[in-house]
Amino acid sequence: MPIITVDDYPIAYAEAGSGESLLLIHGTLGDQRSFGPQMEAFAAKYHVMSLSMRHAWPGDWSEGGDFTIDRHVEDVAGFIRALKAGPVRLLGHSRGGHIAFRVAERHPELVKALVLAEPGGELDESLGGAPVGGKQAAGFSAAAQKIEAGDIDGGLTVVAEQTGGPGAWERRPEERKTVNRDNARTLLGQMNEQRKPYSRAAAEAVRAPTLLIRGEISEPQFGRIVEALAKHMPDTQRAVVPQATHGLNHDNPEAFNREVLAFLAAH
Description:
- The protein is of the alpha/beta class.
- It has helices at residues 36-43, 69-83, 95-106, 133-148, 152-164, 168-171, 174-182, 186-190, 200-205, 220-232, 248-251, 253-265, and strands spanning 3-6, 9-16, 21-25, 47-51, 88-93, 111-117, 210-215, 236-241.
- Helix 1 links the parallel strand 3 and strand 4.
- The chain is globular and about 45 Å long.
């Protein structure tokens, strides 16, 4: 698989297609395989690259202090610069949506258009507070404890139900479970990722045209984040993927791909 080295770390990625660059950033417990249902469709129009973030499969995580949002933001920025192809279209899902948001906020010259698929995180007081962030953080912490103790599927069940509701792990296809199992220990690193909440000032600083996309039957906290960001980001569109939970790019890939490609075609 291809690799681009950023700050002495090999960032592995999957790629397909040709033309202008479209980067895909996965979420918690994911890797470059998380966008399997998108690669062929997106490759028909773009040079699409799905990144495995630092320490995600095919790498791993061991004790260390570099599994943070800030580290991953700088990795994406360094990856884009290494392409030497100018600003890119950038899509992030869940935690990857938070990373993509921060790249656009801090490095506006690198982002031509932005897609945030149910970006993860919390809202600060300027955006109405963090209504359920504490609950999710507690759930992820409990999951990490199970994983550290060797109960991999038990920990992954907790995470799946935090983001997808009761029974989410049992409903998950085996190929997605494999990706999550391969990245289970990254959750131990994520517990200290130093993720800052979204603020009104940060939202207003993102100048790239942005599509905010959510699942029709996703957990309420993701809709609250989408609505708060849409209210204050200068140039946004919103879309809803029918019959989709937080894993919207897998639950209804045809509708997800259609919404994303229509937005990108206009930008």
